[in-house]
């Protein structure tokens, strides 16, 4: 599957549909929505694998990741989440010889919606989908013609909040997502298919505000 | 509500259906070695420092050429920077004789109104450079207009800087910037493939000390 604007539109429609589906009347929203933020680190798999004389990979290094999430309780034990996630890291070429050459830096911005289910013992699990955009710090190398189109992504997460920490609004979160990566520069170079990129983030989540009167 | 997990699974499944990326073909369009020896600027020497004659439009031509060559690379293999200090540079670009007028280059049919040369400064061993590359541009006697001369200088600077990057051979294809006489304004796909391969080939010629 090649990522294109039509895919982005399709996922956009899905997101809007979900939003309409799960949205209760506005007056109920402010009373129930809770906001949380998380900060952690993210690992990203290879963006590009190429071979010029010898094979090499282009990867984003371990990078900080921050997420802002708005959560709306649905029927117990379900919760709907809208998340805004950003991470920023160096994009580097990793040669077989062990040489690492930085190409540029890139921010990755995602907007997602998800459905979370509370489990036992302080765990909850979520799945979702969203849109992802690469925003390079400069137009060079694989980003010389920009970061490419907005890309659909799928996501899953597990949250663990032990009782003592949960009382303080803290929990531990592991997030996973995948998307297709292909920039205009890679396309003009002759790349046809996008690379499936997997990302894993581990973060500490803090509940900033609870409309239902919970812990701050 | 109970259909939401299914919808999510469908989206996840769609995102996972990408095929593996197929690497493009990287075949050089012409040779780049000098009698079997290869030179390119190593990663730890980037950005390569260029000095341009301050007279006329030379700085603009060199800056444009550096930008053009940088844009040929996908993976951060080359970077250049224009400096004002000629004492500590890797490539020096000067006018050999008269300085042509600084006018807007003519975008019409190319006219051979100038020439250029690039001289690497080899150590006696022949496999090491001991000083910066010297690039010079010369105005040829012709009936070219100042704008045609400016266009010739602009593309010839791009050609000569290609030599300073390590493209030591000329291309036979007249649509490539590294053709013996450059007729095009910028590096083409064949130039890009060639310089990419060059910068992934282990060099046998070491750069000059800094």
Structure characterization notes:
The complex is a heterodimer of chains A (216) and B (210). Chain A has 216 residues and is an alpha+beta fold. Chain A has a single domain, classed as Porin (Beta Barrel), CATH 2.40.160. Helix content of chain A is 17%, strand content 57%. Chain A has helices at 5-22, 26-32, 163-167, 184-189, and strands spanning 34-44, 48-52, 54-60, 63-73, 78-95, 100-118, 123-136, 151-160, 170-181, 195-210. Chain A has an 8-stranded antiparallel beta barrel. Chain A is elongated. Chain B is an alpha/beta fold. Chain B has a single domain (33-198), classed as Collagenase (Catalytic Domain), CATH 3.40.390. Chain B is built from 4 helices and 5 strands. Chain B has helices at residues 4-15, 58-71, 146-164, 189-198; strands at 48-52, 80-83, 91-95, 114-122, 129-139. Chain B has a 5-stranded mixed sheet, with helices on one face. In chain B, helix 2 packs across helix 3. The longest helix of chain B has 19 residues, at 146-164. Chain A binds chain B through residues 1-3, 11, 14, 18, 21, 48-54, 56, 58, 74-75, 78, 92-93, 99, 101-104, 114-115, 127-129, 140-142, 144, 152-154, 156, 178-180, 182, 185-186, 189-196, and chain B through 1, 4-5, 7-9, 11-26, 43, 70-71, 73-77, 196-197, 200-201.
List keywords for this structure.
heterodimer; A: 216 residues; alpha+beta; Porin; eight-stranded antiparallel β-barrel; elongated; B: 210 residues; alpha/beta; Collagenase (Catalytic Domain); five-stranded mixed sheet; globular
Summarize the structure.
Chain A is 17% helix and 57% strand. With 216 residues, chain A is of the alpha+beta class. Chain A has one domain (5-23, 33-208): Porin (Beta Barrel).
